[in-house]
Write a structure and sequence with these properties.
With 289 residues, the protein is of the alpha+beta class. It is built from eight helices and 17 strands.
Length: 289
């Protein structure tokens, strides 16, 4: 049985066309399926929990990174249920890391004919993440995006990024990874299972989805005069080459600060949650390349 969770608002006007094409493909395949549309935030969490508690199934999310995030956080039976994704969001950052085509027919074919692969995800206190978890300027950018009324999509994120780069004040951060403690005046601290944020910005460009490790990236003490060059390197996926970038891999990462931290998990903002992240290796089975 294929259970389909759809977020009608994800991806703007293109969403309905993607949904219709995916459902037409499922009908043509002769497979049995059910469709569940969300009507409010967090509903996909509850739907995912209910559907994966009924018994063996393939659960397919049609949406963007936010929809995938909710579905993962409701997933109840990792032993008997598999996860599929048909990208229909604005950025589709995790889909890119997982090799899931943005073409609807190709993404559906990957589910119908492929074999689910063990895939890592990240665990916090009561919250799971699958793409990137971070704090610092990425949170500032997302808050600007949510406040903006005149830009949408990838351009909204890029413009917000540029503004934040010049206005953001670094956070004092204490980090622990692999038993090693460090102190930073940080622009951003993030852990990646996926590679991209903001519709293509490669913040963790070397992350691997099934290596059992978190890619931990910290950018600190960035001088204002270095911001333009750093921005170019970031857009090219070469941020790890900068002297102000610290990069290590580990199974657990902790970040604390003397200032209150808002944490973004797969692009969703969480207040009052400890930035303590562990990798969960291979428990999730997902249709991907």
């Amino acid at each position: 049985m294929y259970n389909i969770i759809v977020n009608p608002t994800s991806g703007g006007g293109k969403k309905r066309r993607i949904v219709e094409r995916a459902l037409a493909g499922l009908r043509a395949s002769g497979k049995e399926f059910r469709v569940f549309e969300t009507e409010k935030p967090r509903q996909a969490v509850h739907l995912s929990r209910e559907l994966t508690s009924e018994g063996a199934c393939d659960l397919i999310a049609i949406g963007g990174d936010g929809t995938l995030h909710e579905v993962l956080n409701g997933f109840a039976d990792f032993e008997n249920c598999n996860l599929g994704l048909i990208p229909a969001g604005t950025g589709n950052d995790f889909a890119a890391a997982a090799g899931i085509p943005e073409d609807t027919d190709e993404a559906l074919a990957l589910i119908l004919t492929g074999t689910p692969k063990p895939t890592d995800f990240m665990q916090m206190e009561g919250v799971r993440g699958i793409n990137v978890i971070g704090t610092g300027i990425d949170v500032d950018i997302l808050k600007r995006c949510r406040a903006s009324k005149w830009l949408r999509g990838k351009m909204q994120y890029v413009i917000s990024l540029i503004i934040s780069l010049f206005k953001f004040k670094n956070y004092p951060m204490h980090t622990v990874c692999n038993g090693r403690e460090e102190d930073y005046s940080a622009l951003i601290a993030c852990v990646g299972n996926g590679r991209r944020i903001g519709g293509g910005i490669r913040m963790c460009p070397e992350a691997v989805l099934d290596d059992g490790l978190l890619d931990f990236v910290v950018c600190s003490d960035v001088k204002k005069s270095h911001i333009p060059a750093a921005f170019v390197k970031l857009m090219k996926g070469k941020i790890l080459q900068e002297d102000f970038t610290s990069f290590v891999r580990g199974q657990k990462v902790e970040v604390t600060s003397s200032r209150p931290l808002t944490v973004q998990v797969d692009g969703e903002l969480y207040e009052n949650i400890p930035f303590s992240v562990e990798i969960v290796r291979g428990k999730l089975k997902m249709y991907r390349k």
